[in-house]
Structure formats: structure tokens, C-alpha cells
Amino acid sequence: MIPPLSHPILAPGAARDLEASLFAGDEAAEWNAMRRAGRAVGEALLRDIRECGGMPVDGRLLVLAGKGHNGGDALLAALSILAARPAATVEVWFVFGSRPLRPLAARAWRDLCHGARGRVREVRGIEGTYDAVLDGVFGFQFHPPIEVRVAALLEAVNAAAIRFRAAVDLPSAGIFRADFTYATGSLKTPVLAGAAAGRVRYLDLGFFRGDEAGSHRVLSPLNLESLGRLRPSACDKRSFGHVFIVGGSAAFPGSVLLATLAALKSGAGLVTAFVPDTLVAAYAAKAPEAMWVGWPLTPGGGLALEGEHLLREKLPRATSLVIGPGLGREAETAALARSIAASSPVPLVLDADALTADVVDAVRQPCVLTPHAGELARMGGVPTQAVLVAKGPATRILHGGVTYETCAGGPVLARGGSGDLLAGLIGGLLAQTPSDPLGAACRGTLWQGLAADRLARARGQTAVRISEMLEHLAWPVTN
User: What local confidence, expressed as pLDDT, does residue 477 receive?
Assistant: First the structure.
């Protein structure tokens, strides 16, 4: 398997050493990095605030600035935001006053005042309501204790009427409560340790070559670059794999349809779905691009063992196999899932009701497992050769002793059916690269997360259907 494009997640000391080696006291290089960081934070904030209505043209931004580089990043982010919102204003609260600013932070303050003359002012407290607040008080070099006065200030901001709260690098002192935290240059371990950071977004500033060691890593969106490349002109549908999907039951009829729809959007050349025979006509009308094979049912409405021959006679055509969406937990269906897993000649994705110890233990091919926390506990263990996609508020991919963070997705995925979409998406990608289950798992998880972000920015987090995410699996996927 090819390691996915990723960067190491660093402890604060290692991050400090990295920056020291990169800049070596060169103030011009540090200033250029601060400018890149400020621009990246400003652009990210304007993207993410769209999930709660966006930044108005005449919006109000509050910046909390400390003495050092985090304060400078926040001030330059404010300049970027004002450039994009010509009637917006910024109020800056220097927590320690403006006199102690370090040279680059002071330079950032001068640039902000000069670049947005008349729209920036210094304040010494919260004045009314704000559309957004950006925390740049403490960086990753902060060491407790915190002054009582500063702690009270941060708590006051937490209690204020502010629609959107963001932090540069990490929430100050673990007290500031962020909706989003923008990790600039490198992602530091403390930001992943608590709930104060909200949703973490890694902003790559070019600090890494990509070959650095580390067992805890963050995935790069560049893993999805291949989605935008031209496909070979001399190709046909067999050039891009054939994914088989086995699932569905009378009790859970929709899950396998969602998985199939996602597989169709994955770029796979062919998709065949084995589903309850009572559903074939309706599903063929919804997705005529897939091939639908009707499967006999047990009296309880699950897939019956007697239908296994339907899969076996077609299986030589497959390049990947997905088992589980909507399968149900009948004993006969569970035995069927175990038999299929044990005899599959192609790599598998196991999801939902196929994630049991019996089925997982039976697998003899490379596989991707996609459990949420409850399913992971039910499995009892993970085979060493498996790729684990541990679903949750922050989905992680684990393989070979390495953990990959995705830094994409959010509450819009907290809906029934999101796991079915992910299973179908990974299965379709695996069909195209059957020798690389880790890559398929990383690309699928990252792609779904970015598509969910796009959906939330377009429609908000509440009044959406999870199937709408499929329309945001588009290129480019990072804006």
C-alpha cells in the first residue's frame, strides 16, 4: 500500500523546533509565514462561517490579540477578511495592551490599520454583538498559570452574543470555546485533546516536505488531486473497477440504496448491488446506472443463505466488495455475511451489521472496516491487516500503527445514512485501486468530509438530507 499524503502532528516542543529550523532567526522569512498564515485563516473563516449564515458585507469582527505570533496571525486574518467584505469593521482587544507587542505582531497591527483605515479600532472590552470573534491571545508556547484577569476576559467572550468563534492554532489557555480552530503551519497535539477547539482545520503553509516520520498524522487534501485529472482517452467502464454491494433488508431498505448511490458517484466503472428481490424495481428506477440483483429473503426479511449462489457466480467480475449496509442481524443473514467474507477473492469493505467479531475474523482478503464507537466495541478487535475507519465527530483512519486525522466534515454528517454513503464511496474507490485499501479509505473519508462541509456552507447544518451530500462530491472539493 502507498502511504497517503500526510504531515506529522507535533507536540508543542517539536513544533517550536521545526519553526526554529525553518526560520533560523530570519525575520523576513517569519513575516512571510505570518502573512501566509493570516491570509489562510481569514479565507478559512469566511468559508466556515457560511455554515451559520456567512459574514455580512457590513459584519463586525472582534479580534482578541496577545503579544506574539498568534496575535499577528489574527490581525492579518482580519485584514484579509476586510479586503473581502468592504463594509465590514474590526475591533481589536489587545489583552495585554498594544505596547508589549512583539515586532512582527506590531507590524501586523500597523498593516491592518493602514490597509483598512477607518474600519479598525482598538477596544478594551466587548461592545455589543459581533458576527465573529477570532482568538489570537496565546499560542502553543503558552504555559499556565493564566492571570485571573485574562481568564475572566476569555470567559466573558464565551458568554457574549457572538455567532461564530474561531481560534488561531489552539483555543487560548483551553478556556476560549471555539467553533473552529485553525492550525497554521503544523497541527499540534494539544488541539486534539479537548472539546474547546471545536472543529479543527489544518492550514498547510508549506512547512513539510511530506516524508517526515510520525505515527500520528493529518491527511492532506492533495490526496484528492487525482479526482481532477483527465482520465485516459482510451478507456472503457472496465478500466475503473467493478464494485459489488451486498445489503438491505425489509427492516432497513434505504441503507443499501444510499451505499449504491455513493458508489456510483465514486468514479467506479461498474456497480452491482445485491438487494432484497422486493426492492429491485423501485431501486432500478432510482438508480438505473447500477445493476440490481434480487436476493431471496428469510421469513424475517433478511437476505437468505439460499441466495449466495447469485453472488458467487458473478464474483469473478468484481474488484471490490461491500457488505453490510442495512443487512440486519438475523442469525441466517449473519451466517451469510460470514460465508461471503471468508470466501471473497477481492478486497472488502465491512460496514454496519457486517461488523461483528465472527464476520471480521472470517476475512482473508485486505479489508476496510468502518465502525462507529458501538460497532467497534462489538467487534472485539481489529485484524492487523485491516484498515480501520473509526467514525465519530472526528473520523480517524488507523493502519500499521499509524493514525491519520481527516480534519474535514462536521455536524451535518450526524445523520442516519452518512455511514452508508461512506461505505459505498470507499467501496467504489477500492474497486479502482484494489491493491490500496488504505488509500481508498483515506480518500473516501476525506472526500465525504469535504463534501459535507460544502453542503453545510450551501444549506446550513439543519435543514438538509444526508443524500444531498452526493451532489457536493464535485471538483474541486476543497472550497
Answer: 64
- pTM comes to 0.96
List CB contacts of 189: < 8 A, sequence separation 6 or more: 9, 10, 11, 12, 216
Q: How far apart are CA 135 and CA 151, in angstroms?
A: 13
The one-letter code for the residue type at 457 is: R
Q: Which tens digit of pLDDT belongs to each residue from 368-400?
A: 999 999 999 998 888 888 999 999 999 999 999
Compute the 3-state secondary structure of the chain and give helix, strand, coil in percent, each to the nearest 5.
45, 20, 40
- CATH 3.40.50.970 for domain 235-456, yes or no, is no
Q: What distance lies between CA 153 and its chain's CA centroid?
A: 32
Kind and range of the H or E element at 12?
Answer: helix 12-23
Strand partners, 200: 181
Length of the chain: 479
> What Cα–Cα distance (Å) separates residue 438 from each residue in 433, 434, 442, 452?
10, 10, 6, 21
CA 160 to chain CA centroid, nearest Å: 29
DSSP β-bridge partners for residue 68: none
**Domains of the chain, residue spans:** 6-213, 235-456
CB 34 within 8 A of CB 104: yes
Distance of CA 213 to the CA centre of its chain: 22
Q: What is the pLDDT of residues 150-209, one digit of tens each?
A: 999 999 999 999 999 999 999 998 999 999 999 999 999 999 987 899 999 999 999 998
Task: Give the CATH superfamily of 6-213.
Answer: YjeF N-terminal domain (3.40.50.10260)
Residue 297 pLDDT class (50, 70, 90 cuts): very high
